[in-house]
Design brief:
- By secondary structure, this protein is α+β, with helices and mostly antiparallel strands.
- It has helices at 5-11, 14-20, 41-64, 73-89; strands at 2-4, 25-30, 33-39.
- The protein has 2 domains: 2-39; 43-89, no CATH class.
- It is built from 4 helices and 3 strands, in the order βααββαα.
- A hairpin with a 2-residue loop joins β2 (25-30) and β3 (33-39).
- The protein is elongated.
Length: 90
């Protein structure tokens, strides 16, 4: 379901309650472009849990495939600052 930003401005947050009873998500369209998505908190928690599960699986796959480094805190910070410096220069 898509709703225009102007409608949100005029009707306020109460608009979301009624729309979320009809759809799982509401897309807010701003100046002709879909810009935001509104979901109820339970749906958000489900999506967040899926996202965290996926990150965990990716990490476990990286470990299984040997795609990781073992560094001391000092080595990690040195590497981090080198990468940061490189990003700033580019």
């Amino acid at each position: 379901m898509v709703v225009m930003a102007n409608e949100v401005k005029t009707k306020g947050v109460s608009l979301f309650d009624s729309l979320l009873q009809k759809a799982e998500e509401i897309i807010i369209n701003v100046r002709g472009k879909n810009k935001f998505v509104v979901v109820d908190i339970e749906r958000y928690k489900e999506l967040r849990a899926l996202e965290l599960d996926r990150a965990y699986q990716d990490a476990m796959n990286d470990i299984k495939e040997g795609r990781y480094k073992v560094l001391s805190a000092k080595e990690h910070l040195e590497e981090f600052f080198k990468e940061l410096e490189h990003e700033i220069q580019n």
